[in-house]
Amino acid sequence: MNKLPYLAGLLILAFSCAPKEEVIDYTKMSDEERLKAATEIAQSTIMVDGHVDLPYRMKVGGFTLQREILDVSVRTPDGNFDFPRAKEGGLDAPFMSIYIPAGNQKTPGASKALADSLIAMTERLATTFPDKFAMAYSPADIEANFAKGLISLPMGMENGAGIEDDLANVEYFYKKGIRYITLTHGTDNLIGDASYDTTGTYGGLSEYGEQVVAEMNRVGIMVDLSHVSDNTFRDALAITKVPIIASHSSVRKFTPGFERNMSDELIRAMAKNGGVMMINFGGSFIDSAYAAGSTKIREHLVNYMAENNLSRSDSAYRAYAAEYAAANNPFPTVQRVADHIDHVKNLVGIDYIGLGSDFDGVGDTLPTGLKDVSMFPNLIAELLKRGYSKEDIEKICYKNVFRVWNAVEEYAAAQKAG
Ligand SMILES: [Zn+2]
User: Fold this and answer.
1) Which of 14-23, 172-181, 398-407 has the lowest mean pLDDT?
2) Is residue 245 part of a domain?
3) Residue 10: inside a domain
4) How far is the CA of 84 from the centre of ligand 1 (A)?
5) CB atoms within 10 A of CB 298
6) Whole-prediction pTM value?
7) Mean pLDDT of 9-22
């Protein structure tokens, strides 16, 4: 008997019974098909954003008052974030930045008080619109909220000044729900040196800063090394017991001399530590030509205001400024953000990349195609075009940062059990 047809039949049977592994080649799709696929991925995948400055925008917009002057449960005409646009873009867990401007550091107690008020405001957003938003204190919370269609509001404190000079405040803020602390903001603080400050107060992390990092490890708060100087970055990496994050930093290779972004040396060190860097979308973070152009535009506009006796809030000025900037300093595009992601991937691999847009925090500098939270699918489509797989996208959207967060939680739990 000729066994060949029999074997062929068995083979066909075996293949048809095996679970179908769909290998989709996104690079072969038309742009339109690919954007549709990217939108589907954005909707079906948890998407975490490491840094959204909504709390401070709400503070400025008046959410602290009894009346909701700024209501982000509905579409808002300005800003980069609101519920409807987040839903469109598939954003599920924007880290709410509890942002403490460095000016508060001059007044003892002011930083902590501001942090408390911004945390309360974020909580109030969740309690006012429980069908839309929910607080989240762990990856498990985000997964549960995602299943219910709610947008999670995890919180990170931008500027360790909120801890003031009392180490006990680290645990205090953990209990308040803070899950990462950016060690510094714009200027050196009690914890260490900042990237924008040339003073070099400690030459890196201070002794108090070392205690703060150890205490953050102990209680389970992620160490965020965005905004710190290179020396503070190295010092913190050397002593942390768990992986770190950079909640909203991009690649310095594209912005030479801009210490706020991460050098290749620091990216390698971050990867060795098992951390994650979440790419900032701000125009000046992703493109040095745009950053230089912005500086020139600012100079021109300051003169224009003076010559025409206008102020920043005049509508005539604002219209002129927007038009002048657009004509003289074209925005980078969503492709530029993908370039940053490519660079990190090529340098250390896909496992160390996340998204940290800085939406609501970088003004009108955002790249074309990535102007607000509704446009995440454009970035995903660009990555698919460059050959990224769905699994790669999932890592960038949430798996990498969840890995770090879970490791931080597990270490803290072991300390408590210890
Ligand atoms: Zn920032």
Assistant:
1) 14-23
2) yes
3) no
4) 24
5) 12
6) 0.92
7) 56
- Give the Å distance between the CA of 403 and the centre of ligand 1: 23
pLDDT in tens, 326-361: 899 999 999 999 999 999 999 999 999 999 999 999
CA distance 81 to 210: 35
Q: DSSP state, 369?
A: T
pLDDT reported for residue 64: 52
Number of compact structural domains in the chain:
2
Q: Mean pLDDT over all residues of the chain?
A: 93
Question: Ligand 1 mean position to 358 CA, how many Å?
Answer: 7
User: What pLDDT is recorded for position 65?
Assistant: 44
Distance in angstroms (rounded) separating the CA atoms of residues 170 and 183 = 12
Are the C-beta atoms of residues 344 and 286 closer than 8 Å to each other? no
pLDDT at 18 over 60: no
How far, in Å, is the centroid of ligand 1 from the Cα of 227? Answer: 7
Distance 237 CA to ligand 1 centre (A): 19
Distance 98 CA to ligand 1 centre (A): 10
Q: How many Cα neighbours within 13 Å face the side chain of 66?
A: 0
Q: Ligand 1 mean position to 97 CA, how many Å?
A: 8
Distance from residue 169's CA to the centre of ligand 1 (Å): 21
Q: Tell which wins on pLDDT, 18 or 265.
A: 265
- CATH code for the domain in which residue 170 is found: 3.20.20.140
Read off the tokens for 199.
Answer: 């003073």
Tokens of 71: 């209501």
136 and 226 in a single domain? The answer is yes
Transcribe 290-356 into DSSP letters.
HHHHHHHHHHHHHHHHHHTT--TT-HHHHHHHHHHHHHHSPPPBHHHHHHHHHHHHHHH-GGGEEE-
